[in-house]
């Protein structure tokens, strides 16, 4: 385990060596005000941890309806990290349920409850039950940028070519 300081904040990182890869595991403080188990990785190389609905009663999502689903979780991420809330592929494929603001970003300084903004893109109602895995959360490092105002940008091969510029084949 390594300790170092970034902007007067002590960061604790656990380094895990697996095969030929080095994984850095950030320690995340969590308060669980709900009654669900904490998110966990399903396998050693899973990128995301499943988030579970923390409900007192089932929630019905009608077609094209969106609702904020509580998890009961509050986290404190180390500086330089974010949590990304992403859809679960099985819910998307089988039921048309996805996370509306994909990926939803949880900033390191946010201390409120994690909510999952789900939308039903299917033509049928979908029932969300207590404890159901509704999304996945990926922990990621990020960099902050600073804008530099210039009069023009350098030329590139792509230039201003945007949506559909490179074709489909």
What string, H for helix and E for strand, traces the elements in order?
Answer: EEEEEEEEEHEEEEE
**Oligomerization category of the chains in this entry:** single chain
Strand content: 35-45%
Q: How far apart, in Å, are the first and last alpha carbons?
A: 48 Å
Strand order of the largest sheet: 5-14-9-11
**How many β-strand runs?**
14
Largest beta-sheet characterization: 4 strands, antiparallel
Rg, Å, rounded: 20 Å
**What is the overall silhouette?**
globular
- DSSP helix fraction: under 10%
Which structural class do you get from the secondary structure elements?
A: mainly beta
User: Helix tally?
Assistant: 1
Overall mean confidence score, pLDDT: 89
Low-confidence stretches: none
List keywords for this structure.
169 residues; mainly beta; four-stranded antiparallel beta sheet; 14 strands; globular
Describe this structure in words.
This protein has 169 residues and is mainly beta. It has one helix at residues 89-95; strands at residues 2-6, 9-18, 21-26, 29-32, 48-52, 59-61, 66-70, 73-76, 81-86, 97-99, 104-106, 115-120, 126-128, 133-141. β2 (9-18) and β3 (21-26) form a beta hairpin.
Task: Briefly say what this structure is.
With 169 residues, this protein is mainly β. Helices cover 4% and strands 43% of the residues.
Topology overview:
Blueprint: E1 2-6, E2 9-18, E3 21-26, E4 29-32, E5 48-52, E6 59-61, E7 66-70, E8 73-76, E9 81-86, H1 89-95, E10 97-99, E11 104-106, E12 115-120, E13 126-128, E14 133-141
Antiparallel strand pairs: 1-2, 2-3, 4-8, 5-14, 6-13, 7-12, 9-11, 9-14, 10-12
